[in-house]
Design goal:
This protein is α/β, with parallel strands linked by helices and 197 residues long. The chain is 38% helix and 16% strand. The strands form 3 sheets. A 5-stranded mixed β-sheet has the order 1-2-3-5-7, with no helix packed on it. It has a two-stranded parallel ribbon with strand order 4-6. A two-stranded antiparallel sheet has the order 8-9. A hairpin with an 8-residue loop joins strand 1 and strand 2.
Length: 197
């Protein structure tokens, strides 16, 4: 048995793959849609018996918010019994080992933190290093419970090229958060002053 189900994910992707024995299939999840479509995925998971909520693999293909947004929520709000054999995701820490269109650096940082906080296996099949393909030679492949997966991209130089942009984007997000905090303080102080007069 081998099935691929495309869950609603707005403009993104959320692919639910089942294979093996129909009575006790192995599962792989590729991307998880947007944060706004996460509830569909959560309901699908909650419909499973608690002892069958294991995914052999969660793949977050790239940083676009419509692929990683739901994955952040999945790790942060993890439905009871959800386990992952491994998670494939090239986070900031892997960029050293793309254009700016809808890249979800903030979500990638949140996802990386959720992986670390939840003690979820991360790129385990690749020795915890970045998932990349060689400049030449055979493409890396991994056998997961009888299913052979071949990695097609990215090349190492593509990850390295993303690193400077990532640093700039993180700094921009930090400044944006500082501005929000300043506005909150000013609003709070103005409210206190109005109440005091």
């Amino acid at each position: 048995m081998f099935t691929i189900e495309m869950l609603p994910a707005k403009e993104g992707d959320c692919l639910w793959i089942e294979y093996g024995d129909k009575a006790a299939p192995f599962r792989i999840l590729v991307d998880a849609g947007t944060a706004g479509t996460y509830e569909v995925l959560a309901d699908r998971i909650k419909a499973l018996p608690k002892d069958q909520r294991r995914f052999e693999l969660l793949v977050v293909s790239h940083l676009d918010g419509d692929h990683i947004g739901g994955a952040v929520r999945l790790l942060q709000e993890r439905p009871h019994g959800v386990e992952f054999g491994d998670v494939w995701f090239n986070g900031y820490k892997h960029l050293v080992e793309a254009a700016k269109d809808k890249l979800g650096v903030k979500q990638a940082l949140s996802f990386s933190k959720a992986l670390e906080d939840g003690e979820v296996p991360w790129n385990q099949a690749f020795g915890m290093h970045a998932i990349t393909v060689p400049d030449s030679g055979a493409l890396p492949s991994v056998n997961i419970q009888g299913l052979k997966l071949t990695v097609l991209s990215p090349e190492r130089q593509n990850l390295v090229a993303l690193l400077p942009w990532w640093d700039v984007e993180v700094e921009r997000l930090r400044k944006k958060e500082e501005e929000k905090e300043k506005k909150k303080k000013v609003t709070h102080q103005a409210g206190r002053a109005a109440r005091g007069s």
